[in-house]
Write a structure and sequence with these properties.
Layout: E1 2-4, E2 13-19, H1 23-31, E3 39-45, E4 52-56, E5 59-63, H2 65-68, E6 71-76
Antiparallel strand pairs: 1-6, 2-3, 2-6, 3-4, 4-5
Length: 77
């Protein structure tokens, strides 16, 4: 089952299947290591859901909800 990163709950894990978006924003996500095949764990969510903190490739990264909705993942149990 695929889900966008902004719909994950704290503790959910997934593997990136697709990164949507265009131009500079998509390039920025790739530069941060969010590429197909990367494993992501959602660590924290702010009270209103923006921003979120993920663990990716051994480091913590904070994303805005508008960026997280562009990342599609296959959920891992």
């Amino acid at each position: 089952m695929q889900k966008s990163l902004d719909n994950f709950k704290v503790g959910d894990k997934g593997v990136v299947t697709m990164v949507n978006g265009e131009g500079k924003l998509r390039r920025r996500l790739f530069d941060m290591g969010i590429t197909p095949g990367a494993q992501i764990i959602l660590k924290k969510k702010a009270p209103l859901g923006d921003p979120i903190e993920i663990t990716l490739r051994g480091y913590e990264l904070t994303l805005r909800k508008s960026e997280a909705c562009l990342v599609l993942l296959e959920i891992k149990r």
